[in-house]
Design brief:
By secondary structure, this protein is an alpha/beta fold. It has 9 helices and 5 strands, in the order βαβαααβαβαααβα. It binds BIS(adenosine)-5'-tetraphosphate.
């Protein structure tokens, strides 16, 4: 089984690129953001709690997303692997993922990181707000919180995967097609 991670700041294009990657390599795409939005749309207890945090630009608790990932691994057996999008987002999540994969006799295959500057994050998220109307995209102060949360809590993961020699960074600027070709170049 392959366990790829698509990594990057909010709005870097992780979700945008994930469909093409998962189709090409027969991977199950797991987006923790999408799973959480589904819970929110269905009005579950988890969804209600998540909404308050997500709409404020904060991360939901580690154990919530860890449980979701474990359930998705168990549910999907007819694939060649998984593409994790938006997970892990903290060092604790990265370590929990290692433990979970160890139990399966597996490990992370590669982390592909899409890099864009903070100014581009604002542009892309403001643009998406006009199309999708996501609450967490609509206010500049919430976008600012998401960016600072990324720098404080998510960026430390980079050195974790660099020291495991599983980290490749690519330029996330350019057209969707240009970025996609760069990703395919890394994954082979
Ligand atoms: P996510 O759903 O993961 O949201 P995201 O980071 O904003 O999305 P992404 O990077 O996938 O951007 P996209 O491709 O859509 O998370 C939402 C929230 O859920 C988080 O803030 C957090 O609260 C919570 N959450 C999720 N996972 C969690 C975890 N593990 N732990 C705790 N909390 C968690 O691209 C953005 C826009 O850019 C789109 O409009 C797209 O069309 C555009 N775009 C993409 N590529 C482009 C390109 N090359 N050129 C121009 N525009 C481009």
């Amino acid at each position: 089984m392959k366990y790829y991670i698509i990594f990057g700041p909010p709005g870097a294009g992780k979700g945008t690129q994930a469909t093409a990657i998962s189709e090409r390599y027969n991977l199950k795409h797991i987006s923790t953001g999408e799973l959480l939005r589904k819970e929110m749309a269905e009005g579950t207890e988890l969804g209600k709690k998540a909404r308050e945090l997500i709409d404020a630009g904060c991360l939901v608790p580690d154990e919530v997303v860890e449980g979701m990932i474990e359930a998705e691994f168990a549910r999907n057996t007819e694939v060649d692997g998984f593409l994790l999008d938006g997970y892990p987002r903290t060092l604790a999540q990265a370590k929990a993922l290692d433990l979970l994969l160890n139990k399966r006799g597996e490990s992370v295959t590669e982390v592909v990181s899409l890099m864009i500057p903070d100014a581009t994050i604002y542009e892309r998220i403001r643009h998406r707000a006009g199309i999708e109307g996501r609450e967490d995209d609509c206010k500049d102060e919430v976008i600012a919180t998401r960016i600072s949360t990324y720098h404080k809590k998510t960026e430390p993961i980079i050195s974790f995967y660099k020291s495991a020699e599983k980290y490749t960074e690519i330029d996330g600027l350019g057209t969707v097609e240009q970025v996609r070709e760069r990703i395919f170049g890394v994954l082979g």
